[in-house]
Amino acid sequence: MATLDTQRFDLYLPPSQAGGGLDQDEEWCEIERDGERQRIRLHDYASIFNVPGLYEQLFCEKLECDSPEIVCQLLAAELIADDIDPATLKALDFGAGNGMVGEQLANVGVESMVGLDLLPEARDAAMRDRPGLYEDYFALDITDVEPDDRRELESHDFNAMTCVAALGFGDIPPAAFAEAFNLLDSPGWVAFNLRDRFMEDNEAGSFGAFITRMLEQDVLEEQARVTYTHRVSVAGEPLEYNAVVACKRDDVPLDWTRAS
Ligand SMILES: C[S@@+](CC[C@H](N)C(=O)[O-])C[C@H]1O[C@@H](n2cnc3c(N)ncnc32)[C@H](O)[C@@H]1O
Q1: How far is the CA of 201 from the centre of ligand 1 (A)?
Q2: Does domain 67-257 have CATH number 3.40.50.150?
Q3: I need a surface site. Which of 14, 61, 72, 162 has the fewest CB within 10 A?
Q4: β-strands 160-163, 188-195: how paired?
């Protein structure tokens, strides 16, 4: 768990009656600063990253999220099993946020990593809270990249990608995942997590259907999967996720991400 030396906040979660009725995407908390309470939606990452230490205090401590560590440890175990030195990885951390996954990658011996996130607030928070961790950090939409940015991204010759707590719920869509995935060399390593109900969803256009197709058509070869509690909800209920480590075998056709 991150040990940032930051201000502590009085944090309030919804009363149990209200909290029990909230979907994961509707959850909120309130923080008290200078005697005033401010309500923030848990998926309003820009507002959370703007407050140093809030992401860690809220998600890691109060809601018991260990996903960065769990996914990176699962990746590390597969690297060890394949006798691969983590220092040979050039990792793209997609949906990198304020750098919690980068920190865990470094803990397992990965030395070269680049962050990529939609939000400039995420990049600013990573630079502020974990300076020097990422070689580079791009704040952009991977489905709409300027040629210079694309060239720079491609010049990193990535052979691994992590994507933790960033798929589903209107975050990274399949089309963006595919674009980032296609930045990796083949063979390459992919480590990600996804809520169990999204993984099981086989409706056309869903993430589950997209991942299943990648696995069935050998674009992706699964190495390890665990089901675990990603975190608890604001009502204290466990939220079950799958963590997956897989090998990239080929680029994915972008039209696989479309519903039909
Ligand atoms: C819950 S945070 C996870 C951050 C980090 N991976 C972690 O585990 O601590 C989700 C992150 O995904 C990012 N995100 C959402 N949609 C995205 C997109 N289309 N492209 C890149 N990043 C995106 C958000 O900005 C946010 O930083």
Answers
A1: 21
A2: yes
A3: 61
A4: parallel
